[in-house]
Amino acid sequence: MKLEKVTEKAGRKYHDACGAAHGLDLIGERWALLVMRELMFGPRRFGDLKKDLCGLSANVLTQRLEGLEASGIVRRRRLPPPASVQVYELTDWGRELKPLYALLGGWAARSPAHDPTLPLSPVSMVMSLETMFDAAKAGDARIEVGLVFADESFRIRIADGALSAERGGAEGAQVVFDTQPSVLAGAVYGGAPFAVLEADGLLTLTGDRAAAERFATFFDLPPKAV
Q1: Distance of alpha carbon 4 from alpha carbon 33, whole angstroms
Q2: C-alpha 181: how far from its chain's center?
Q3: CA angle centred on 186, ends 224 and 207, rounded to 5°
Q4: What is the pLDDT, as a whole number, of residue 3?
Q5: Chain-centre distance for alpha carbon 62
Q6: Around 144, how many Cα atoms within 13 Å sit in the side-chain half-sphere?
């Protein structure tokens, strides 16, 4: 039985000197990349990660966090009082992988099998905006947008043809959307009118409405692959 366990563990490695193969040794386990995605905008508690990763059990989440921590990609720390809770965060090396998500997400969005109606976490929505932002359409626009998704918030800044995003700071933005990630995706990518979503109680929009309408034109999904 002991030999079987060792063999099973060894079988998960590619035993290949290629850097890509070793990368898959580090992050190729199911859910590992999505756990990392949820940490891209800062530290999260275990419960927050489980809540936003639909279908992930607590046991598997524990295994993935332990594996990523052992590889030097994730670290644990305890927030100072009054919070005094344990959180998980990416190391500097772990955060270097962020460009991969834009490349992989943009490529996969071209798949005819991609289903945009599946669950979407707040972090994945913000990263989608980062990926699908069209600098040419934004031009010289300077807009600050707050996104409120239940108990999570983000601030989007668009200036000089670039988009930046950070967790928190939605208050005081030029325009604020209070909604769910999937609803915002329907407005930005599907063209659902803000007025209709507001009338249906799915979205609350405060601030500069003209800026909100313009903001929604800065994003496009790529054409589907043939």
Answers
A1: 27
A2: 11
A3: 135
A4: 42
A5: 20
A6: 9
Contact 9, 64 (CB under 8 A): no
11 versus 131: the higher-pLDDT residue is 131
What pLDDT shows up at residue 82? 86
Per-residue pLDDT, averaged over 112-118, amounts to 92
Q: Show the tokens assigned to 134.
A: 């069209």
Q: Are 37 and 101 in contact (CB under 8 A)?
A: yes
Structure tokens at 148: 């409120």
pTM, two decimal places: 0.91
CB of 122 closer than 8 Å to CB of 152: yes
Which regions of the chain does DSSP assign to beta strands (E)? Answer: 74-78, 86-90, 143-149, 152-159, 162-167, 175-178, 204-207
Share above pLDDT 70 across residues of the chain, in percent, rounded to a whole number: 95
Counting every residue written for the chain, the total comes to: 226
Neighbours of 2 (CB within 10 A): 6
Burial of 89 by CB count in 10 Å (0-12 exposed, 13-18 middle, 19+ buried)?
middle
Q: Which helix (H) or strand (E) holds 187?
A: helix 181-188
Q: In this structure, what are the phi and psi dihedrals at residue 33, rounded to the nearest 5 degrees?
A: -65, -35
Mean predicted lDDT score pLDDT of the chain: 93
Report, as an integer, the average pLDDT of 132-161: 97
- Segment 145-162 shows an average pLDDT of 97
Q: From the CB of residue 134, how many other CB atoms can be counted at a distance below 10 Å?
A: 13
Sheet holding 162-167, edge to edge: 162-167, 152-159, 143-149, 175-178, 204-207
